[in-house]
Amino acid sequence: MLPRTMIPFFLPCMLAAGFFALTEHAAVAQTSAKATLAPLPPSKPPTTEQAREKILPAKQLFGEKQLPSLGKAVAIGYYPRGCLAGGVDLPVNGPTWQVMRLSRNRNWGHPSLINFVERFAALASKATGWQGILVGDLAQPRGGPSVSDHASHQIGLDVDIWFMPMPDHVLSKEDRDTIAASSLVAADWKHLNPQTWTSQHIAFIKTAAEQPEVERVLVNAVIKKELCRVEGKQDHGWMAKVRPWYGHQDHIHVRLRCPADSPNCRAQPPVSGTDGCDAKELNYWFSDKVLAPQIHPTKPATPPKPLMLADLPPACKTVLEAPDKKTSVATDRH
Ligand SMILES: [Zn+2]
């Protein structure tokens, strides 16, 4: 869940782009019908797969897919520009985890991500004393851009995990869709929220960043600053992986390295190797440029152009058009 301040990526409902294209088409047809006095058949929405792929934003095409593609699991492309073949779902309940926001159908990922979440849930539970963890979004069944607020999470290697302990009972589907994640950051975006911040959160973040398959852990800068204050002098390797980013006041975003079985997965440039506690680097995140839009979010004057299927790696077209992989778990989920 990126914040509203991630303006270039935030605008939901690019369905609208497809809608406008069709409406405009219909209007042109009506005008020419009047001009020639010869009624033309009404313009129909594009029905062939090929036409839809050209006209509709990729987020709509991928968002429609309820099941993963048939075939072996492969992460394709770059974290914010790619897709996922042969996705696997994370069971919505485990001994030490529960998946939130089930209606979004985003509990899919590359098997390395599913394995990570299951392993991390047990480790984090032990490190924090929590009953378990609450898991937010992974990827859509076939990855790709999504209809709401994620720029990344496209190749099945990103997961959001809440800063709240799992309760001692199984949450209802409704609870999972409505319970809000609590923020660890105060309303001024400069201080921790003393009502919610606990030392267990340090253990939670540290446990995630220590795992070898983890490439980065994104947290709000206020949290990173606190980690620097508490842990920064000890030169821990894991601290380098924990990086500040917009939002992330109520969850960590964990990104895994490209798995060996995915040659077309593009690696992110490695972190700098420092612990990220340099004052100059941290201060940027407390500048007006970053804080002002977080405090007063605004919509951009011109919406960013949505990604189209042609903007993604060519293999994503194959993934989109592939038959469904039927999974026994998926049918129970909704
Ligand atoms: Zn995320």
Question: How many distinct beta strands?
Answer: 11
- Anisotropy-based shape: globular
Q: What class, by secondary structure content?
A: alpha+beta
Helix count from the secondary structure assignment: 13
Average of the residue pLDDT scores: 85
Q: Extract low-pLDDT stretches.
A: 1-36, 330-334
Oligomer: single chain
Give the biggest beta sheet. 7 strands, mixed
User: Roughly how much helix do the residues carry, as a percent range?
Assistant: 25-40%
Q: Strands across the major sheet, in which order? A: 4-5-7-8-11-9-10
Give an account of the 3D structure.
This protein has 334 residues and is of the alpha+beta class. The chain is built from 13 helices and eleven strands. It has helices spanning 7-10, 15-36, 49-55, 58-63, 111-128, 173-178, 200-210, 221-231, 237-241, 279-284, 288-295, 315-321, 328-333; strands at 74-78, 81-85, 88-89, 93-94, 97-99, 108-109, 133-135, 158-165, 214-219, 242-244, 251-256. The strands form three sheets. It has a seven-stranded mixed beta sheet with strand order 4-5-7-8-11-9-10. The protein has a two-stranded antiparallel ribbon with strand order 1-2. The protein is globular, with a radius of gyration of 22 Å. The model is unreliable at 1-36 and 330-334 (pLDDT under 50). Residues 1, 153, 158, 160, 253 line the site of zinc ion. Zinc ion binds next to strand 8.
List keywords for this structure.
binds zinc ion; disordered N terminus; globular; 334 residues; alpha+beta; two-stranded antiparallel ribbon
Describe this structure in a few short sentences.
The chain is of the alpha+beta class and 334 residues long. The protein is built from 13 helices and eleven strands.
